[in-house]
């Protein structure tokens, strides 16, 4: 588990995609986060992704369909249409 809910990131670092065995990522309640890197889609073992309360995120990465083990997704986003992201 990686809990970044108390971090000050506005953009998550690209190296997050290197955490191949990560199963849970919590970046909830961080209204300063504006973008998720596409490298997050390389987390094929990720089961839980929580970014509820990150209401400044305008768009999800386009390759979210590659996160094949995702079981729980909690989000707040400005994006109106999630089609085309594999969700």
Automatic annotation (TrEMBL):
InterPro entries xref list: LRR_dom_sf, LRR_R13L4/SHOC2-like
Keywords of this entry: Repeat
Coiled coil (UniProt feature): none
Domain Disease resistance R13L4/SHOC-2-like LRR: start-end pairs: 2-78
Listed SUPFAM superfamilies: L domain-like
Protein name from the UniProt record: Disease resistance R13L4/SHOC-2-like LRR domain-containing protein
Lineage: Eukaryota, Viridiplantae, Streptophyta, Embryophyta, Tracheophyta
């Amino acid at each position: 588990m990686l809990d970044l809910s108390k971090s000050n990131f506005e953009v998550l670092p690209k190296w997050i995609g290197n955490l191949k065995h990560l199963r849970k990522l919590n970046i909830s309640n961080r209204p300063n986060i504006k973008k998720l890197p596409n490298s997050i889609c390389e987390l094929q073992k990720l089961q839980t992704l929580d970014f509820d309360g990150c209401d400044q995120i305008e768009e999800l990465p386009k390759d979210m369909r590659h996160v094949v083990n995702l079981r729980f997704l909690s989000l707040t986003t400005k994006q109106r249409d999630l089609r085309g992201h594999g969700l």
